[in-house]
Design a protein that fits this description.
Layout lengths: L1 E4 L2 E9 L6 E6 L2 E5 L8 H14 L3 E6 L5 E7 L3 H8 L12
Parallel strand pairs: 2-4
Antiparallel strand pairs: 1-2, 2-6, 3-4, 5-6
Length: about 100
């Protein structure tokens, strides 16, 4: 779910667009489940989800780096370590196959 990256971490995310509110609601199929009120059109949901995930993980900023047209996404969160992000998100599934940066 969380992989170290030279700029921070990459987090696997499952998105539910068009929800009644913006929130992190747990896990779905090994990914962080995020609901957003933003519609899935014109990149609005992607931008909102990147911000929600970055804030929840304790990072400075976020951007969708894979899955822009899918509910399954990978979000780069800048300015946080994998262990700090896992603690902020209260999860323990850090990808330990990679070296922490």
């Amino acid at each position: 779910m969380i992989s170290p990256h030279p700029d921070g971490v990459v987090i696997d995310v499952w998105v539910v667009p068009g929800a009644s509110s913006d929130e992190v609601v747990g896990e779905h199929a090994g990914a962080l489940k995020v609901r957003t009120a933003a519609p899935a059109e014109g990149g609005k949901a992607n931008r909102r989800v990147a911000g929600i995930v970055a804030q929840a993980a304790g990072g400075r900023s976020g951007s969708v780096v894979a899955g822009a047209a899918s509910r399954s996404k990978r979000v780069l969160v800048v300015g946080v370590t994998a262990s700090a992000a896992a603690a902020m998100l209260q999860i323990g599934d850090i990808d330990r196959k990679h070296t922490e940066y």
